[in-house]
Amino acid sequence: MRMGIWFETSTARAALVLALLGSTACASQATTPAPATTAAESKQAKPHTAAEAAADYSSAAGYTRAALELLREGEPKGGWVSPQLLKLTNSSGLQVNLERIWSLCEGDSDTCEPELKHLVQEVLRVATRPESPKATPERLFAVIRPTGYFDGAPPEVLRESLVEPLAGGLVVVYVMDEGGAVRGAQASDLKDLSLTRADIPAVARRNLSAELPVPPNQADCRPHAVGVWRTGSYFESSRLLLTDYWQGLADRTKHTIIAAVPAADSLVVVCDPTAEELVKLRKTVEQMARQAARPVSDTLLKWTPAGWQELK
Question: Left if phi > 0, otherwise alpha if psi is -120 to 50, otherwise beta: which for 277?
């Protein structure tokens, strides 16, 4: 029996969690968007497929039917069925849970069709590939997500996922990088990794440190100046986990360090801010989170010798 795992798609406007009883993937680095369709091309576009024409995004039942039809069109011999509302499965035992993407659709109807199509594309890529790459220590990373990230996820996903608290309503979620894609790391991966659960944080930090070198032009914590880290890496917000860097910065500058991760690919840092500057910083972080393609949190964190703590 394959174990349940999660994945999130790179173009999602909010985090998506799925339970797939099999291998899963999501893009780990920024991808090049598809070229915009011109007016002339639109006139020559192909007619809608039956699934697109019949799509009903006004209810969970309609959304389930739309996803099922798209999967059947993409993999006609896959044996895709819907055993219950917002759940799909194929003949090989792959199971897809639509709860999170449906909740996203409910909150913003403009996301219903594009998010579903992208999700189906990723599911079909997983369903039709021969096998998932074997887990290795070099591919172990970590991402930072809000504590509600797994809300609505099936129990098997929660049991198998490698997650631990960080601070301020944030959690650390361990993932396997599959070369342009990541999937949630599982307890069942520990055997292939030849690691214990206690080994996981140090190995992930080592890999993140190599993935996230400090840019040569990065300002060195100037008082009252706001710095925004945006190197284009999917793991940018995970820079918070590089504890040696932050402690070294604090020891060297003797400044108070405040940080926030409004998006997966963004990190905001300010040193020795005044009370007035903190008010402005909160507003800036809130705005960044609202506009982010993959928002994380608007919480402000303070570095301490014991690690990050929420700034009240």
Answer: alpha
Of residues 99, 105, 12, the one with CA closest to residue 58: 105
CA atoms within 13 A on the CB side of 127: 25
Phi, psi of 171 (to 5 degrees): -130, 155
Strand ranges (DSSP E) for the chain? 4-5, 20-21, 81-84, 87-89, 95-97, 140-146, 163-165, 170-177, 182-184, 226-229, 257-263, 266-271, 301-304, 307-310
pLDDT of residue 121: 85
What is the pLDDT, as a whole number, of residue 103?
Answer: 74
Q: How far is C-alpha 3 from the geometric centre of its chain's CA atoms?
A: 20
| DSSP code per residue over 277-295 | HHHHHHHHHHHHHHH-SSB
Helix (H) or strand (E) segment spanning residue 174: strand 170-177
Question: Which residue's structure tokens are 């809300």?
Answer: 151
Compute the distance between CA of residue 80 and CA of residue 94 in angstroms, rounded to an integer: 9
Residue 48: per-residue pLDDT: 46
Longest dimension (CA), the chain: 64
Distance (Å, whole) CA 156 – CA 153: 8
Phi/psi of residue 257, nearest 5 degrees:
-115, 120
297 burial (CB, 10 Å; 0-12 / 13-18 / 19+) is buried
Token code pair at residue 44: 């020559």
pTM attached to this predicted model: 0.70
User: For residue 192, what pLDDT is reported?
Assistant: 93
- The pLDDT score that the predictor gives to residue 6 is 52
Question: Under a CB-based contact definition with an 8 Å cutoff, are residues 297 and 262 in contact?
Answer: yes
Residue 31 one-letter amino acid: T
* Count of other CB atoms within 10 angstroms of residue 134: 10
For the chain, list residues with pLDDT below 50: 1-5, 7, 9-48, 50
